[in-house]
Automatic annotation (TrEMBL), chain A:
<dbReference type="GO" id="GO:0008324">
    <property type="term" value="F:monoatomic cation transmembrane transporter activity"/>
</dbReference>
<dbReference type="GO" id="GO:0015297">
    <property type="term" value="F:antiporter activity"/>
</dbReference>
<keyword id="KW-0050">Antiport</keyword>
<dbReference type="GO" id="GO:0005886">
    <property type="term" value="C:plasma membrane"/>
</dbReference>
<keyword id="KW-0813">Transport</keyword>
<dbReference type="InterPro" id="IPR002758">
    <property type="entry name" value="Cation_antiport_E"/>
</dbReference>
<dbReference type="Pfam" id="PF01899">
    <property type="entry name" value="MNHE"/>
</dbReference>
<keyword id="KW-1003">Cell membrane</keyword>
<comment type="similarity">
    <text>Belongs to the CPA3 antiporters (TC 2.A.63) subunit E family.</text>
</comment>
UniProtKB/TrEMBL annotation, chain B:
<feature type="transmembrane region" description="Helical">
    <location>
        <begin position="6"/>
        <end position="27"/>
    </location>
</feature>
<dbReference type="InterPro" id="IPR005133">
    <property type="entry name" value="PhaG_MnhG_YufB"/>
</dbReference>
<comment type="similarity">
    <text>Belongs to the CPA3 antiporters (TC 2.A.63) subunit G family.</text>
</comment>
<feature type="transmembrane region" description="Helical">
    <location>
        <begin position="39"/>
        <end position="59"/>
    </location>
</feature>
<feature type="transmembrane region" description="Helical">
    <location>
        <begin position="65"/>
        <end position="86"/>
    </location>
</feature>
<dbReference type="Pfam" id="PF03334">
    <property type="entry name" value="PhaG_MnhG_YufB"/>
</dbReference>
<keyword id="KW-0472">Membrane</keyword>
<keyword id="KW-0812">Transmembrane</keyword>
<protein>
    <submittedName>
        <fullName>Multicomponent Na+:H+ antiporter subunit G</fullName>
    </submittedName>
</protein>
Amino acid sequence: MLQKFSAFIFLLIVWFIFAGRITVDVLIIGSAASLLVTLFFSDMLFREVHRKLPWYHYLRKLALLLLFIPVFFYEAITAALKVSKHVFEKNPSFNPGIVKVKTELTDITGLSLLANLITLTPGTLTLDYDRSESAYYIHWIDVETVEEAEMKKKIIARFERWVGVIFR
Amino acid sequence: MPIRLIAAYFLMITGSAFAIVTVLGLLRFPDVYTRIHAGAVVLTISAVLVTMGTAIYVWDFFLSAKIILIGIFFLFSNPMATHAIARASYKREIALPKEYEIDAYSDYLGRDV
């Protein structure tokens, strides 16, 4: 019930933003459309929580999520500058390759979010996830090392801790 | 000129510079996968910087919120499209990386490239 209610409120807020004004006619049409979407697809937007945590845990997770946004953009901009450096070389000289990196996350939302974050960062690209060994296959534009611990530190450790704390 | 407009122009010009770098990278890099890396720059950094600059430029609550929603949509759709293109071109053998020294994914698929 809480799942459906939060999905309805979220969709209504998005509808108001796209409409651009808060009036009665927008409210009527918007609640009809949001109700229709909520009835069919509400389980895709929010998941049921299995474990009950005290309320301040969720507040802490929300604060960490907001703190994570500037950290992510800092990492993304430094990685983008690294890739842009290769563009201006006379002969683009790098050593691309596909490496296998193990992860310790188990939560399914955290796993997919970490894969998306790796793909969003320029220079690394997730190709596949192996469920039996819990490892990502990552295409790396410039393979600097083949040591497993070093590789993990350079590619995913900067995001894995944040995602592991937020989605646990 | 107010400081808000200067910040907006700075963000938009930085985003456009990254877009130009992306086009050069798409033309110069050797194979499909490295070109996808160059394309990820434009979708992650450049589009987000330009949308943020535009949101500061218009400075109206509903318009800015709408533009920021479009930027968030970029951040959601970009990794899915990138991942789908790369994985399909590897698994369907459309463009195989023949000259790579390190290729752990072909062992996983049971191929000897």
